[in-house]
Amino acid sequence: MCAVAVAAALVGAAPTGRTAADNTPVLRIGLFYNTTALPTANLENHTGSGYRFGYLQDGRSFVEVGETTETKITMVKNRNVYMKSGVYYDASPPVGSMTIGCYHVDVGTSFGSFGEAQNRAGDLRGQGYEAFPVYDGGNYRVRIGAYASTGAAGASPAAGLPGAQIVTGSAYCVSVVQTETGTVVFQFDGGASVSLAVRPSLSDTPAPITWFKGYRYYGGFEYRRASGNNMTVVNWVTTQDYVKGVIPYEMNPAWPLEALKAQAICAKSYAATNLSKHREYGFDLCATTDCQVYHGTGSATANSDQAVDETLGYYAYHGDKVASTVYHSSNGGSTESAVNVWGTDVAYLRAVPDNFEDLSRAVNGIWSFTYTNSNITKILRDKGYSTGAIVNAYVDEYTPAGNVYRVTFVDTLGKKHNFERERARTILNSSELNLHTHSQRYTISSGTATLTVIGGAGSKVTKNSIGGLYAVGGGGAATPLSGSLSSLLLRAKSGLSSLPSVSTGQYLISGRGWGHNVGMSQYGARGMAEQGYRFEDIIKYYFQNIDVRT
Question: Does residue 17 register a pLDDT over 60?
Answer without folding.
Answer: no
